[in-house]
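Structure in, sequence out. Go:
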């Protein structure tokens, strides 16, 4: 199993109380039908959920070879799903234009601090 997955699982288990952890251990020891169903259901949801391209609006399905761009400040990340390289290129060019306009008007990308 990949190391990152194990780390995420370890972090998730930090929020499980003792009784639930014992039940989970027993389920995993017996072949883990409950966990198998849970994982299967989540995979079905991910594979069948259509997202749309941020540029052209085309539906994007899991495994289509699409792109996901995560951008923004550390305190407020945004995600854009893009169906092809041309849409990715258009999106990035548009972001550059926005940054240039912000610079023209002296707008900085700093987190808001209430005084």
């Amino acid at each position: 199993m990949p190391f990152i997955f194990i780390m995420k699982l370890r972090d998730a288990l930090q929020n499980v109380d003792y009784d639930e952890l014992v039940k989970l251990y027993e389920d995993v020891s017996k072949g883990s039908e409950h966990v198998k169903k849970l994982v299967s259901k989540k995979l079905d949801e991910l594979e069948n959920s259509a997202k749309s391209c941020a540029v052209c609006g085309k539906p994007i399905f899991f495994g289509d070879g699409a792109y996901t761009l995560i951008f923004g400040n550390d305190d407020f990340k945004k995600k854009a799903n893009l169906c092809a390289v041309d849409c990715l290129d258009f999106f990035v060019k548009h972001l550059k234009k926005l940054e240039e306009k912000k610079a023209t008007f002296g707008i900085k990308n700093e987190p808001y601090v209430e005084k």
